[in-house]
Amino acid sequence: MGYKTLCFGLTCILFVFYIYTPMPENIEEPWKIRITDAAIKTTSLMAMILEKIGLKSFETLYATLIKLDYTQPISDENVTVMDTTFSDIPVRLYLPKRKRESQRPAVIYIHGGAFVLGSYKHTPMDLLNRWTANKVDAVVVGVDPRLAPQYPFPAPYEDVVSVVKFFLQDKILAKYGVDPNRVCISGDSSGGTLAAGVTQLIQNDPELKSKLKAQALIYPGLQLVDVSVPSHREYEHGPLLPWKVAIKLGCLYFTQDRAIPQAMMKNQHMPHGSMHLFKLVNWSTFLPEEYKKNHVYTEPILGRLNPSYSILLDTRLSPLAVNDSQLQNLPLTYILTCQHDILRDDGLMYVSRLRNVGVKVFHDHMEDGIHGALSFMASPIYLKLGIRIKDNYINWLEENL
Ligand SMILES: *[C@@H]1O[C@H](CO)[C@@H](O)[C@H](O)[C@H]1NC(C)=O
Ligand SMILES: *[C@@H]1O[C@H](CO)[C@@H](O)[C@H](O)[C@H]1NC(C)=O
Ligand SMILES: *[C@@H]1O[C@H](CO)[C@@H](O)[C@H](O)[C@H]1NC(C)=O
């Protein structure tokens, strides 16, 4: 009896230690965030155990849980909602019911979920797109690109390209009453990565007549070249998105070879021939002083991995790592960054790089922000931060699109 109690007690202590994350001081609703963070960590632990004993892969458990929260396309008093496909890719359309003489703006939205999870069907995404359609009086297109690891890179990227090219055709824009000069592409987290990469392709393609008016990137991940920037170091243990989980899921986007995440955790994953990318993601050059603090810049270590991993040089995985010449033609940009987020510095560096080449950028920085807050705008977890991010983003669209 005494022995069992002791074991149980020790297990509890170990568990609490495992899920304990130091919380930044200035965050709103710290207890809600603590509980959410603990729930995510417990799920990760369970997922890791299931994966170790060979029952389920790490990401399947997450995917199963998120699917419980999927919605049907339900129209409301303001917006007609329907599921269809564009170029064989599933999309959910939100068409405002309000009468309008002139053409409407449009938003193409790519959901987050580390390229592995999520859908436009997920309740918070459905709400976000519905609210956007109503408030901005815009046609909104939620996109479900194929997901890794079943469909690794470049499949998700190519799906977004297909949807955007399909939608930008004159006859399709006309069908939905959309103004060709007022189309924005938006995305959060990995959706922001896709939105940024696809925007670079569309704006730099001389064959394409229709262009995007704007891109809106909400706490996007923008590079895999250097995974030891100050925000990675400061928020390694979360809240919400621990660095190791991000690397594990991020690598699944393009490989199931476990050598890659292992090398990435030592920042020695980049192959020979990739040195020219370092200066394009150099945080010591592109971060504002206040974010550099006492950090010392060290270059990623080259060439420890099999050189066949040239995929890591593909800038569609790292839209921050392109030349200035590919940034110059980018449209009006909205970037939202969160202070307490490993991906913070990717966003901050993109702000600097875009402004350096004269692209107009509106930068929203949430001083008390944490990664993924947009996913907590409805029960079971409702964060005021999620609502503020949503409001900032939609207000910006209202004023700028
Ligand atoms: C419809 O729009 C009005 C005005 O914006 C808003 O007050 C109402 O909540 C909306 N209805 C739904 C179901 O979103
Ligand atoms: C990064 O930036 C720092 C400071 O601007 C500079 O000293 C260093 O050489 C740069 N390294 C690379 C690889 O660009
Ligand atoms: C970027 O610029 C460098 C030198 O200016 C060039 O060697 C390289 O090919 C360019 N990369 C791309 C993707 O345009």
UniProtKB/TrEMBL annotation:
Family according to the record: Belongs to the 'GDXG' lipolytic enzyme family.
Name of protein: Arylacetamide deacetylase like 2
Keyword tRNA-binding: no
PROSITE patterns in UniProt: LIPASE_GDXG_SER (PS01174)
Domain spans labelled Alpha/beta hydrolase fold-3: 107-254, 314-373
Active-site residues annotated for this sequence: 189, 341, 371
A molecular-function term among this protein's GO annotations: carboxylic ester hydrolase activity
Entry GO CC: membrane
